[in-house]
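Collaboration report, partner site 2.

Our partner group contributed sequences for two proteins of shared interest, and the home lab folded both. The records are reproduced in the order in which they were received, starting with the first partner submission.
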Amino acid sequence: MSTRSTRAERRRKERQRKQIRNILIFSGAALVVAAFFLFMSNRPVDDLADAPARNSPVAINEMTIGNPDAPVLVEAFEDFQCPSCLRFTEDFEPLILQNYVYTGVARLTFRYYPFIGAESFTASHAALCANEQGKFWEYHDILFANQLGENIGAYSSRRLEAMADKIGLDVDSWKACYDAEKYQAFIDSELADARNRGVQGTPTIFVNGQMLPSYDYQSVGFAIEQAATNQ
C-alpha cells in the first residue's frame, strides 16, 4: 500500500472515531437531559410547605384585596418563580396591607407577568383556576411558600395539583380548568398590558398608574401617601 493510501486510510479511521465519539457524547447528553426532565416531572409532592394563614379583615374580590372605593390602586406585576417577588410577598406586602389596605387608603391587585420560563405559565394557569373557586390568594401563598428555583419542577403539574388539594379546592374542577389552559388569552393580555406600560421584570409596582423605581416598602408607602394626598 502506498504512503498516500496509508494516510488516506488513517484519516478515514480518524473521521470514524470522531463520529462515534460525537454520537456517544450526544447520546449521553440526551440521556442526562431526559433524566433531568423526568426528575422535574416526578419531583415529590409529599414535601409541600404549608402556606401561611391569610386572615384579611377587608374584602377580597378575586385578585384584589381592599375596599373597591379606596382612592389608591396598587398593582403588583409578578412572576411566581421570581425570588424578588417572594421577598416582596414575605417582607413588604404584609406591611402594605397592614398600613394602607386594611386602613382603607389603598387596594392591592395582583397582576401577571410570567416571563421567567415554562413553570411561570403553569403556575399562572394554576392560580387563575384556583381563583374560579374563590381561593386565589390562598393559592398565591402556597405557590410562593413552595418556590424552589427556576424551572426545576417546583411547579410541575403534579405538584400544582397537590397544592390545589392541600388548600381544599375541588381538585376535579380545578384540574379540568388547568388542563384546558382556560386562561391563556387572559395571561397573554396581562403580558401585553405589562409590556405596553414598560414592565421589564418583576416585581414591578404601579401606584395609581405610575410605575415605581423600587418595590421596597418605603418606596411603595411613600407613593401611596402622595397619591392619597393628591386625591
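Second partner submission, folded after the first:
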Amino acid sequence: MNKAFTREPDAGETRCPRCESPGTPVGPETLRARLLPDALDKLAESGFFCRYEWCDVVYFDQFGRTVDSSSLRAPIYPKDPTAPICACFEFTRDDIEQDVQEGGATRTRALLAKAKSPEACCAVRAGDGQSCVPEVQRYFMKCRAREQGAQS
C-alpha cells in the first residue's frame, strides 16, 4: 500500500500491545473503580483503555502490561455489548433500540440531558473514563439508519 494512504502513529501515541489500536488514556480513578484489586498491581497508576470489542485487552500501560475482562469488577461497554452503554445511568443499547423502533428519541434525549448534569461521574463509572454522549449518538444514528433501510 502506498505510504501516502496509511496513518502514521502520532508521536507519543500509546497503542494496545495486542491489536495495535490507539489507547484512550484513563486516570487512576477509572482504574481503581473498574479493576479488581489484584489487577491494579499489574498496571502503572494511569493506563489506557482499548475500546475495540474484538480485542481481549481492556486496559494496558505504557510498559505493555495488560489486563483483560476477567480483571473487571463489572462488564464494560463495548467489551461486553450487553453492558450499559452509559454506566452512570445504566442506559443500554436496548433503550436506544426501543426509541428507534418507536420512532422517537425520548429515552435517548433524557439520557443526553442527564449526561451533562453533575450526576454523571464518567471518570469513575465509564470504562474509558469519558462521557458516553458521542457513543450514544453514534449508536442511535446507526440504529436509525438500519431501521430506515429496513423500511425501504
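Feedback sent to the partner group on the second submission included the following. Residues 39 and 137 are 32 Å apart (CA to CA). DSSP finds six helices and four strands in the chain.
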